[in-house]
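Example 214.
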Amino acid sequence: MNKWDERYNRVEDAFGKGVNGFLKSQLDDGLLKQYQTSKEANPKVLCVAAGQGRNALYLAKQGFDVTALDISSVGLEQLSRTATKQHLSIQTICGDITKLDLGQNTWNIVTCFFMHAPKETRIAFYKKVPDALKPNGHFVFESFSVKQLELKEQNEGSIGGPSTPELFPTVEELSSQFGMLDIEHLVEAERELEPSPFHKGKAAVIQLITKKQP
Ligand SMILES: C[S@@+](CC[C@H](N)C(=O)[O-])C[C@H]1O[C@@H](n2cnc3c(N)ncnc32)[C@H](O)[C@@H]1O
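Predicted structure in complex with S-adenosylmethionine:
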């Protein structure tokens, strides 16, 4: 049992029940419409580091064909139970992102939110994304930025996020790794996180959206 399994066994909806706010804003700002009006039925989304599945559930409700991937079998079992209760169908893959084949030209959207993984793991994952996306496919990513360490220290009602600098991706890392895709959005920002037992208040984040060329 890994630390995420233990956490999910202890805490229901550890990172909130509702969808990630950045993902929702991107869907509302056009991503959803773009896929709902495309000729392709049920566009395929891969939610990497899906956890207990708050984003996967939301995407499935919007009509996407969702696969949730995580290293935590406990999180994925909880997600599957919730999906069944809500009459949603979500596929799950349990494993380490560095060891899994994400396929070729397979996904319309790949998402990854707050994975908190070491640099070696992040880079191994990033390298799989361009091939795994279908042409015109999107990668939507958000994580704490290293500035979160300062916010936590100031303790202005902000909690959550790793304490090890190595676990924070940087703008340089993302821009160099995703140079072969069109980078539509790459910013460091501060925003209020969806309240949850582990994330509260103002957070320093890095957000990325890339699009694969046709
Ligand atoms: C902070 S949680 C975020 C969960 C979810 N994205 C959310 O926002 O609710 C981080 C998740 O990343 C997963 N994770 C970390 N390293 C991973 C790896 N190497 N492969 C797959 N999943 C990983 C953990 O199991 C955990 O569920």
